[in-house]
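Troubleshooting: if your tokenizer reports a length mismatch, compare your output against this known-good record of 131 residues.
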Amino acid sequence: MKPHTNGINGVVFSPDGKRLATASDDQTVKVWNVTNVRETLTLQGHTSEVRSVVFSRDGKRLASASDDQTVKVWDATSGREILTLKGAAPATSVAYSPDGQRLASAWWDGTVKVWDAHPRSQESTPDAKTP
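Known-good structure output:
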């Protein structure tokens, strides 16, 4: 088991309780098998601290929020980056809607953005923006 090399900012169980995801200042998200406490994935792609991580309701995707002004969506099995959502400030938190169709993200500048979680293209724009 390789622990994070810096502080951990967020932790979340998968919906089935078999995996745990951690978000770290070391710019990574790690996924762990809860049964044997082994790392199964390291998600790399953020260029600054990762503040928050969340599984989709079906456990197939992970979303992470980072100080690099992005929210990234990942395949929770392969670790492949699926989507990058860009903001104008560090992203502090992210959450899926109950139906899994939208992502809400909180940003250091005091805004909340709601995104289509399954856009047709990689260039997604927020559905709504509120202070």
